[in-house]
Fold these 2 entries.
Entry 1:
Amino acid sequence: MTTTQDQSSTNSGAASSEAAEKRTVRFRIQRCLGPNKPAHWEAFDVPILAGEGANVISCLQYIARRPITADGKETDPVVWDSGCLEEVCGACTMIVNGQVRQSCSCLIDNEAPNDGDVISLQPMSKFPVVRDLWVDRQRMFHNLKRAHAWTPIDGLHDRGAGPQETAKNQETRYIFSTCMTCGCCLEACPQFLLVDEPAKWDESFVGANTIGQVRLFNLHPTAKEEAGERLEVLMGPGGVSDCGNAQNCVKVCPKEIPLTEGIAAMGRATTVKAVKQFFTGE
Amino acid sequence: MTEHQTPLSKHHFLLRRLHSLSGIVPIGAFLITHLITNSSIVWGKLGGAQHGGDGGMATFQHEVNFIHSMPFLLLIEVFGLWLPIAFHSVLGVYYATTGRGNVGSYRFQANWRYSLQRLTGYFGLIFIFYHVATLRWGWDFLPFTNVFIAEEAASTTALALRGGLEGGLIGGVVVGGVYLIGITALVYHFANGLWTAAITWGLTTSAAAQKRWGYVCAGLGAALMLAGWSAYVGFVTLDIDEARAVEAALHGPAEGARSANSDLSADAGRLERE
Ligand code: SF4
Ligand code: SF4
Ligand code: FES
């Protein structure tokens, strides 16, 4: 669903002549003026024209232009993060009406179809808040590094053609490659908690997306070479065995990545590795 | 990466897997045999009276005798049950503190099971302790207890489940409630644990396989629930005087003195006709 062309729609909201289609949606926004500052709520009324495809980001843009609360007080513009505006970058992830999702693809006509409907917005709770709805997802990228979620460069000299990718492998891997590091799976996971101190990240649960990426790279014909290293990370503290099988991750993943299958596959791979280690000492 | 490794973090994977394994063997395996043995108070009747007297009571007595005739019973209990249960509980409680349930926000079925798994773990642990303390270690200073006597298995168990001799209605309801909830919690914990263990160990790697295995675990859980509940009903509806008579008859006339019934042979004869 494209949303970019709809950004200007809310501009005309106030001046619209078709009163029947116009409605007001109230946004309750959890605000926070900086890291470790206390959170508070503010409400904003946003005029909406039905059928014009307004989404949460376009409403936030309206509020940014006119930062006046529902009870008429002037306030600081609400801060949020976004990038692609078409649900591929993951930057705009936040909690909309209690559910974690991408705000750019959250259409107001679906979420708040009637006049006076309320939409609540909160920042994700598993990452430190930078300001308002903007969180710092650094830990996700740290975890990808921790788990060697890349294909190693095998030298500068020509080693000929790489190994062939099979169609079946490709089919399994493709969906895992669509992960946009948005954080939905971590926000909904009861085993993934906010860890403020980066020094503790290496011992804390890596989360479903990283386990999925290990699956992706361990199946890659070249990246396979480092499969053992990746599995070792998943066998350490905060690895795959910290998953509690609540399976929320797979339910909330906007890319419908079969995360629980990835988790089980990594459970199997680590079991096999542990048994091998026991008998061969490797 | 990690500067100071604790034994817990160094053997993280091994401990996690041993935690999972210990829940199945020996604890889960014992739970199955224990519930089947207990329910013999009901199904024993079906098998006829090959153990003498009333099928149910006699079969149950026979099973109890078998367990109590095992050599090194205390060693088997300590190393086969108490230590594994202690290991599973201590680690389990610790692991449970590493998560924070969120069924309030994400009301998915599997998420409920996740939270229930932790809740039933806590309650199951308290229940096992209470159960073993009162019926095995004979802690009769706790309220509503009745000491279990291996030679009078059915009658003393029945009295215990009714809250003891002086328990009355309140004792019966309290103890009955604790047992029914305890059994239900533990069976759930085992069946759901069996389902998640298959993911943990990597046996069910597809969503379809996880679903299929889910049905198997649910079926096993339902069967065990039935065994547990029917045992409870069997003991609560047991005629204690009859049970004493059967037990006395099985152990010879010397112990018949315990029976509340004066005319043992007539009583046993009546039982056989039934
Ligand atoms: S299945 Fe594991 S990773 Fe996914 S939400 Fe549950 S605990 Fe988290
Ligand atoms: S796995 Fe899905 S929910 Fe998790 S970060 Fe990737 S795209 Fe987002
Ligand atoms: S802005 Fe990129 S996913 Fe919403």
Entry 2:
Amino acid sequence: MGVRSWFEGWPVYRQLTGTDPLGRGAAAKSDGSRALTARTDTADSMARSVCPYCAVGCGQRVFVKDGQVSQIEGDPDSPISRGRLCPKGAASKSLVTSPLRQTTVRYRRPYGTEWEDLDLDTALNMIADRVLAARDETWEDVDAEGRPLNRTLGISSLGGATLDNEENYLIKKLFTAMGALQIENQARI
Amino acid sequence: MAEAHPVGFQWVMEAKRRGAKVFHVDPRFTRTSALADSYLAIRAGTDIALLGGVVRYILDNELDFREYVVAYTNAATIVTEEYADTEDMHGLFSGFNDDNATYDQASWRYEGHSQNQTTRDSETQRETAAGLENESHGAPVGGETERDETLQHPRCVYQILKRHFARYTPEMVERVCGIPQEKFLELAQAWTENSGRDRTGMLVYSVGWTQHSVGVQYIRTGAIIQLLLGNVGRPGGGVMALRGHASIQGSTDIPTLFNLLPGYLPMPHHANHPTLDAWVDSIAHPGQKGFWGNARTYGVNLLKAYWGDAATADNDYCYGYMPRMTGDHGTYQQVLDMIDGKIKGYFLLGQNPAVGSAHGRAQRLGMANLDWLVVRDLFMIESATFWQNAPEIETGEIAPERCRTEVFFLPAASHVEKEGTFTQTQRLLQWREKAVEPPGDARSELWFFYHLGRIIRERLAASTKPRDRALLDLAWDYPTHGPNVEPSAEAVLREINGYDVATGRPLASFTEMKDDGSTVGGCWIYTGVYADGVNQAARRKPGSEQSLVAPEWGWAWPANRRILYNRASADPDGNPWSERKRYVWWDADKSEWTGYDVPDFEKTKPPSYRPERDASGVAGIAGDDPFILQGDGKGWLYAPTGVLDGPMPTHYEPVESPVRNPLYRQQANPTRKVYTHPINTLNPSPPQEHSQVFPYVFTVSRLTEHHTAGGMSRTVSPLAELQPEMFVEVSPELAALRGLSHLGWAHLVTSRAAVEAKVLVTDRVTPLRVDGRIIHQVWLPYHFGYEGLVTGDSANDLFGITLDPNVLIQESKVGTCDVRPGRRPRGQDLVDLVVDYRRRSGNLVHRYPPMVTTDVADTSSDQEA
Ligand code: SF4
């Protein structure tokens, strides 16, 4: 390495002579950092999404590499958020990739003291059995005056407000057809 | 707002840079206060007194935007002679019925109306949270009214309002809220000076206003101010609800609520809605004006969407399949019913009531007394592990080997692992693309409910029972795709939008809906989101390439309108009120409404249009009536019907308060919804004895770094690290009084629970002088629980259950407590401590009907005593 290139490699020199007087960009780069590329550049795909926390509805860009979420960033195109995310929105990647996430069905039998494993299909069928049984046992056809009730008060539901509209639509549709009236949501709270 | 909606707050800062003055009113100094021009520390639960003071200031000084008020509000409308005000009745309105604590609203009606048109009595309206139906339209009234546009008639709304708020003086604001008069006047002056032709002022609120026993009236007071100042339907104006969850607006529009169907149609009631005709006529009274006159169309389209080909004119579109309400079936009633063993199964779908709902102990004991519980979540939340780790394990109230509840935990897909729409706080639908497949057994709710429905229908396929017809006839054939057999969210969105049955063409607008079964539409207010077969919610034209209104980003209901009632941004003749505030106006050359937004008015109805005397529906709305979903086309300063606790807001003390109401003898909202269950114990408030046992006011709210019950933040390491511990903010004065030390421990006690927290001694909370004495307030975050990376006691355990009568939201923003140094006791000692507090405070539970205190004089406070 010649003296000149050694000298030009000195960040302060670059900061004073280059286009980065504050030393926050090019001037501060080392050979190591110069060789890095952003995860967003090397992603296989990007999905346009929306932050799942509050109702400001900030735009997110979800970058995917090898089938895994590699980065979530604010969407600069969004007229709502202009690329910004708050601490929660910025933690979305940690949310979806958290090692604490449960990815298998867990089952606790009545009076049980431990969780057990259960196959998803079995769980779904067991739940269907219980829904139908609870509905049968608590069904009300008519009121005291013979007016229709068509319902069960033996089943309850409480949903969060991070459910999609399409999901809420199917939930309400199915429960209504089942006669299950006691369907509530965070929106009450 | 800077704390809980940080990225939204950038627009407040942008406005501030352009000269807007920002006022922040909060019991505690927050990041928002730090950036505001002025901060007003308020006693929790007294906002109506503050806002009422502003109403009085406007009216006394005649600072209202008179042209707007006369033309667009009901200020000029005359009210019947039978009406009597809180001024004359110690804080009650006329029509109060002691037996069931409800108002007969007949005496509130407009002059000349024989009766209000609602078919349901007030008690049924309270039980079924009927106020929620008004989210998309006003309560029914007839269109013809008697008016005095000079506003001088003693019974015109303007004069009634003036009299009603006469006692909300600056002195009274100071006495009730603890806000110094100069501070109050600074706010009132700035608000009025920045409203009018050239300027608009905006009001922003969140659950600090809604979670009260008189919460709907908080917002009504804000709306009255904004109408008086001409700040509704205009750019930079409005009453902005900042909602706290990604799609909480969507969860009311397409509700999973017991009392509503999509598009704010009421769930049928057994006595009031026996037939399709009775149901639709109760929504749109024959002869009523406005868009809501088409209720039959919206109802029939929903029934067609539910029951498809089986729904025909001959069988009233399967209306008979609908389950019927008989009363209150809300979440708090359900929990008490669980404790009483009446409920067998419970689904929790991304919701954590063990931490997030009021009276956590009642929530957990309820869950421990079920046959089965299904929890669908990303993480192992408190509501799934109550049988193992609840605080009641330590006290012996729950023991795994005695707890019969069978628990299924099913992992859920995250927001990047499924596609669909969220509706954010401005009614804007935004479609999310799917980035990756969900891991392992994780699935979307769409998957879970589609397949649950499929299996149930298969099981019942051979059934001949009438009750199963509704399931078997259900239109449930959604296309599926991918390795998990995921139903198509886009197909569901198309059904929500609606389409023509014969051709399958998606509807462009709800005005294309027919009431003869030839169209289908699952949620009429969302019609247009799939117009032209294009997913309009997926539009992503960059904001930088659009106007400020950005109409091509996502899609807002109704009809992609970004500001509701925007006809009011033009004067009665259709011209902008000013160049500066130009938004939507009448283009006389083209004979149509035009502007920066989609006009919220019939496009070609001229400002000069006047309806025939008995015109109904949309034809009944005049060309200068901007409030097209109101029966009289006007913005309501006074609600002649539909608001169960009064036609105008009145300050009542919170149900648990250390203070006797300084404004009226009536202490608390007389019509509040109460539950008399023994678990629902009550802290006494004046004029009851022993209120000094719980001398301090506590309030709760969010931290920037956490999300509600913590299920999506205490489980995420960067967020957990930023806010790792439960804490309580106390003033230096209270710390000295109660012997608390900074970073030491304290515990708070109510008649429900004791919770402990680390002490943060800070000037952010300050003692207030209220009605001649010092009131100490403390503040806590409500995010903590016993699972996740960071844990702590739950603030919501401190609250009892009392609800607003209009919408059945709980009072969980204010309560009374005692504050003690050190950690709370454990096990039986903890139970004993709470029992002792109950004993010393008189062992109270809620009673029905709630206490009326108008005959208990308080010499220091009642001006007429
Ligand atoms: S990034 Fe923050 S402000 Fe934006 S939607 Fe998410 S939680 Fe709300």
